[in-house]
Amino acid sequence: MLTIGKLAEAGGVGVETVRFYQRRDLLGTPPRDGGIRRYGEEDVRRLRFIRKAQQAGFTLEEIRELLALDSGHDRHRAHQMAQRRMVKLDEQIAELQRARLSLQRLAEQCAEGKSEACPILAAFEV
């Protein structure tokens, strides 16, 4: 059995993150045992699941649904959610690539060192 600090450490998060997940009903809050809440391996597994799902870009609401699917083993629904998330990630990657290309062009123009205003700074002026 783990204290909240040990649970947080095992999950690679801070104690306040554990409490945040508890307030959002993603992670259970066990009753106090001698004034201290005790967490088990299932809590560690769930906390790690939440963190990994967040790293994959899922929202907290999507994670809540994934947790429900995990308990019911609804592979089809989980697959659909993953497919939608990948489409969103592809869109974000494309947007970042466009931003990088634009910034690269500005940096090249800036490096040319012409006497006019810096193209990077000029691009961000209103």
Provide keyphrases for this structure.
mainly alpha, 2 strands, 2 domains, 69% helix
How many domains? The number is 2
Number of strands: 2
Instruction: Work out the strand percent.
Output: under 5%
What is the second-level CATH architecture of the largest domain? Orthogonal Bundle
Indicate the percent of residues in helices.
55-70%
Which CATH class of the largest domain? Mainly Alpha
Q: Largest sheet at a glance? A: 2 strands, antiparallel
Strand order of the largest sheet: 1-2
Label the overall shape.
elongated
Derived structural class: mainly alpha
- Taking the alpha carbons of the first and last residues, their distance comes to 57 Å
* CATH fold-level topology of the largest domain: Multidrug-efflux Transporter Regulator, Chain: A, Domain 2
Radius of gyration: 22 Å
User: How many helical elements?
Assistant: 6
Q: What is the typical, i.e. mean, pLDDT?
A: 90
Q: What's the topology here?
A:
Elements: H1 4-11, H2 15-23, E1 32-33, E2 36-37, H3 41-55, H4 60-72, H5 75-111, H6 119-123
Antiparallel strand pairs: 1-2
Helix pairs in contact: 1-3, 4-5
